[in-house]
């Protein structure tokens, strides 16, 4: 039997991927139960910065199958369209200016957070600003408008829609493949993120850790900025400062040194701004 004929579906995991998958399944007429160890805010998705960045680390170009680009492009266009419907709705998502501020043109490393895959025509073009058009002490400044998500509001909205359409959430940890076999649903979608690694003994699944530090929101700081070694995004719930991405790191212990480093870089940049 084709899985599409099966109407009762189990989704494993209640992060952003699990909830979005469940909503789409509901829209196609399925009854969905989410089985999950944790729910927001205790999921990795609650710690994302909140930038719409569909190309970021999505797949290493060297190992992508030829059909991957098409699949990714279709998914990206679909998600972009869907996110348009959230704009203007209680600050779940909004357009925000995004500045890149560098002493010289940055060199992106493909596969390490650089954009291996790109689509023209969705977002406004990134434009290079003339010196008189920006206040930064830097020679290479760009600006682009991008979609930004207020993460707590977004996850709450998605979860509320899921339950409003009859979805159920059951707190249950999947420890081994047999636990999945024991579920009443015949079709199961894995959205456990990094939690899938031990369940499936997946040798390839690799974490990339990142640390965010949060400042109290400031009324006139309503944009995103990235520079060498640091970035920040101004959300409703705080100004989130980040930058690092350590491939293969499972340790989630916060590092004060990392926070001081990124805050220091941004403080210097702000102090050097022309008034
Ligand atoms: C600092 C930082 C900033 C980021 N910024 C961005 C950004 O701006 N834009 C962007 O697109 N992405 C960003 N990301 C990446 C993004 O956060 C992740 O790609 C995304 O959250 C993954 O979602 P997920 O639903 O797959 O996983 P998770 O949010 O980890 O959800 C996994 C779910 O599975 C459940 N689970 C796990 N194991 C089990 C188990 N054994 N049994 C039952 N349930 C289980 C968990 O409880 C959870 O509910 C960022 C990541 C970090 C760390």
TrEMBL record:
FAD dependent oxidoreductase domain boundaries: 8-270
Annotated keywords: FAD, Flavoprotein, Oxidoreductase
Enzyme Commission number(s) from the entry: 1.4.3.3
Cofactor dependency: FAD
Keyword Cytoplasm: no
Gene Ontology CC entries for this record: cytoplasm
InterPro entries noted in UniProt: DAO, FAD-dep_OxRdtase
Annotated GO MF terms: D-amino-acid oxidase activity; FAD binding
Pfam families, per the entry: DAO
Family (UniProt): Belongs to the DAMOX/DASOX family.
The protein's name: D-amino-acid oxidase
Source organism (scientific name): Dyadobacter sp. 676
């Amino acid at each position: 039997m084709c899985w599409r004929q099966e109407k009762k579906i189990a989704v494993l995991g209640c992060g952003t991927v699990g909830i979005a998958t469940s909503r789409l399944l509901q829209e196609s007429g399925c009854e969905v139960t989410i089985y999950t160890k944790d729910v927001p805010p205790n999921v990795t998705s609650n710690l994302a910065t909140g930038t719409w960045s569909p190309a970021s680390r999505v797949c290493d170009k060297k190992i992508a199958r030829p059909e991957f680009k098409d699949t990714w492009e279709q998914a990206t266009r679909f998600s972009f369209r869907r996110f348009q419907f959230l704009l203007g709705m209680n600050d779940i998502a909004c357009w925000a200016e995004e500045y890149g501020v560098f002493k010289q043109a940055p060199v992106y490393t493909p596969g390490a957070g650089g954009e291996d895959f790109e689509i023209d025509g969705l977002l406004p073009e990134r434009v290079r600003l003339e010196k008189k058009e920006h206040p930064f002490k830097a020679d290479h400044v760009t600006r682009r408008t991008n979609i930004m998500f207020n993460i707590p509001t977004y996850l709450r909205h998605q979860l509320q829609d899921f339950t409003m359409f009859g979805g159920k959430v059951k707190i249950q940890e999947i420890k081994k493949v047999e636990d999945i076999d024991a579920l009443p649903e015949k079709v199961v979608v894995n959205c456990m993120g990094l939690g899938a690694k031990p369940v499936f003994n997946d040798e390839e699944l690799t974490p990339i850790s990142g640390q965010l530090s949060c400042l109290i929101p400031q009324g006139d700081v309503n944009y995103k900025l990235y520079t060498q070694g640091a970035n920040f995004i101004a959300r409703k719930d705080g100004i989130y400062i980040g930058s690092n991405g350590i491939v293969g790191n499972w340790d989630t212990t916060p590092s004060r040194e990392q926070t001081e480093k990124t805050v220091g870089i941004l403080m210097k940049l702000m102090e050097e701004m022309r008034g």
